[in-house]
Specification:
- A 4-stranded mixed sheet has the order 3-1-2-4.
- The chain has 2 domains: 89 residues, DNA Methylphosphotriester Repair Domain (3-Layer(aba) Sandwich); 114 residues, Homeodomain-like (Arc Repressor Mutant, subunit A, Orthogonal Bundle).
- It is of the alpha+beta class.
- The longest helix has 19 residues.
- A hairpin with a 4-residue loop joins strand 1 and strand 2.
- The chain contains 10 helices and 4 strands.
- This is Methylphosphotriester-DNA--protein-cysteine methyltransferase family protein.
- One of its GO terms (molecular function) is methyltransferase activity.
- Its cofactor is Zn(2+).
Length: 208
């Protein structure tokens, strides 16, 4: 009985390994060519987005190193990947709130990259218009506004915790135009970055 249990555990481990590590040239070609003849033969998940698709999905081709192969949709779901809204690998729509959660998580982790509606739509496997409308419905603000919010909060942390220049900080948070960065920061916090840093440090001295 114990031997059978150990055998089942070992088999499960092997299956888990093979299910996510059997990328072949044939499968990769199917993904980049959106080959529908491979649908239901395998599914692929993209680690950076947490989304999985059919091989025929028309979404932008992912980086090969970020792709994980699954033999069934259930395996992808069990590894916490969520179905693409465009190709619907489970033949069901991903709920809007789950979709937008994936998008906000991506922005939170990748706000230093060049992000706009077009790139976010491609990453999230949806049209820019639909993403904009759905994001605002769920979050109350647009994807662009949310991205700015994340970037400016990161900038505020840099101002408080480092001696980086304003130009360096603007680049670090994904807003390479420092003049535009200063304008956005002042609109959000009521002070320029330099004023904010001085004010915060003055307050720290008074508390000492």
């Amino acid at each position: 009985m114990e031997d059978k249990k150990n055998s089942d555990i070992q088999r499960g481990r092997l299956e888990n390994i093979s299910n996510v590590e059997i990328m072949t040239d044939e499968r990769w070609k199917a993904i980049i060519n959106n080959d529908a003849t491979y649908n239901n033969k395998f599914f692929y998940g993209v680690e950076t987005t947490g989304i999985f698709c059919k091989p025929s999905c028309k979404s932008r081709a992912p980086k090969k190193e970020n792709v994980r192969i699954f033999l069934t949709a259930e395996q992808a779901l069990n590894r916490n990947f969520r179905p693409c809204k465009r190709c619907k690998p489970t033949n069901e729509n991903l709920p809007d709130n789950e979709w937008i959660t994936l998008v906000t998580e991506y922005i939170d982790k990748n706000f230093t990259e060049k992000l706009n509606l077009e790139s976010l739509g491609a990453i999230a496997h949806g049209s820019p218009f639909h993403l904009h409308r759905t994001f605002k419905k769920i979050k109350g603000i647009t994807p662009t506004e949310y991205t700015q919010h994340v970037r400016l909060n990161a900038a505020r942390k840099y101002l408080i915790e480092t001696d980086k220049s304003i130009t360096d900080i603007s680049i670090c948070v994904g807003i390479p135009n420092s003049t535009y960065f200063i304008t956005l920061f002042k609109n959000k916090f009521g002070h320029t970055p330099i004023q904010y840093r001085k004010l915060h440090r003055l307050m720290d001295k008074e508390e000492e």
